[in-house]
Amino acid sequence: MSGAPIVEFFVENFFRGKRVDSFLERHLRSYTPFQIHRLLRAGCVWVNDWPADCMTRIKTNDCVRVRLISPPDRCADADPLPLEVLYEDAWMLVVNKPPGQMAHPGGKFQTQTLMNAIQLHLDQQTKAPGLLRPGIVHRIDRQTSGVMVVPKEHIAHRVLTSQFEFKRVSKSYRAIIHGRIAHDEGRIDLPIGLIPNIYSSLMCAKPCARDARSATTSYRVLERFAEYSFVEALPLTGRHHQIRIHFAEIGHPLLADEFYGAYGEIKDGTPLFTPDVPPACLGQARRDPDDEGDEEPAESPFFDPSLPLRRHALHASSLSIAHPISNVPMGFTAPLPTDLQTTLETLRAR
């Protein structure tokens, strides 16, 4: 216990008058409230060098010190995985997520996710593991690559969450779609909701969709090929699988998309409507692979064998936000991954 690390925090103005346990729950985000109460009961917390308990109130600029006699109890495993950092400061991290990697642990995927890689990166910056905990303010599909912003502490997490919630974030994607899309620019306005099959969490833009919400995607064509088009897509709303569904619904599904086919076809065999058999008998029916607990095949069975790409052709290419502390506008760009670059080169060579 004598060798346990001691960390120190200063009370921000918006915590004045609050209890010290509430303050520590924000700053020690990898510790549960139960664990923080244990530290307080064990006499491991001081406010301005005076021992604190669960009822201690704090004021602005108080110094709170904590002796960490036990490890965090809700910290993701730190995995030594490749991590491409596009930007980093004391409050946030911006990374280029590779295709095929889950954004965060869930269900069967408790390791090897992007958050596991970031946890190791953050642990190397602190005196004890788990003092910095990566936050989730948005996500991209497992097989989608590209820009993700990750807050490192509670203020940045709160501010960035608000920016995404109130649509103060701009995102753009690059996609390869089937067919030569007719117009150089366009806008797709189609509400998106769950398909009427209660055993699946796939989405659709058909009138029969359950709990449909408005969705808008604008696009412009970057290149056209004999059988495909390379487009930039700007989602103006943030619905699940929005870009994939919108292009599929107008007859131009993404190259190698496993689920969404032309004009709303569900490609993997999942019935659009709830069948008259229990889910255990649905042979080919399956849930969305990005949901917790599902296991996705290593590659889409619907790829073009003449092209190098083996997952749906979608890349989150840029993200624009306001810095969570300074409010300065910032923009980040992730280069195209190798599989998309080589696919485009192959199409150009034809």
What does this structure look like?
- There is one protein chain.
- With 350 residues, the chain is α+β, with helices and mostly antiparallel strands.
- Among the domains are: 62 residues, Structural Genomics Hypothetical 15.5 Kd Protein In mrcA-pckA Intergenic Region, Chain A, CATH 3.10.290; 149 residues.
- It is 17% helix and 25% strand.
- Strands 5, 6, 7, 8, 9, 13, 14, 15 and 16 form a 9-stranded mixed sheet that branches.
- Helix 1 crosses helix 2.
- The chain is elongated and about 75 Å long.
- The chain starts with 5 loop residues before the first strand and ends with a helix.
- 38% of the residues are buried.
- Runs in which pLDDT lies below 50 for 5 or more consecutive residues are 282-289, 291-297
SSE string: EHHEEEEEHEHEEEEEEEHEEH
* Major pleated sheet: 9 strands, mixed
Oligomeric status: single chain
Integer-rounded radius of gyration: 23 Å
Which class best fits the helix and strand makeup?
alpha+beta
**Strand element count:** 16
Gap from first CA to last CA: 68 Å
Overall, the morphology is elongated
Mean pLDDT: 91
Percent of residues in beta strands:
15-25%
Report the total helices.
6
Helix content: 10-25%
Task: Itemize the secondary structure elements and their pairings.
Elements: E1 6-10, H1 20-27, H2 33-41, E2 45-47, E3 50-51, E4 63-67, E5 85-88, E6 92-97, H3 114-123, E7 145-151, H4 154-165, E8 170-178, E9 185-189, E10 192-194, E11 203-204, E12 210-213, E13 216-224, E14 228-235, H5 242-249, E15 314-322, E16 329-333, H6 338-349
Parallel strand pairs: 7-15
Antiparallel strand pairs: 1-4, 2-3, 2-4, 5-6, 6-7, 8-14, 8-15, 9-13, 10-11, 10-12, 13-14, 15-16
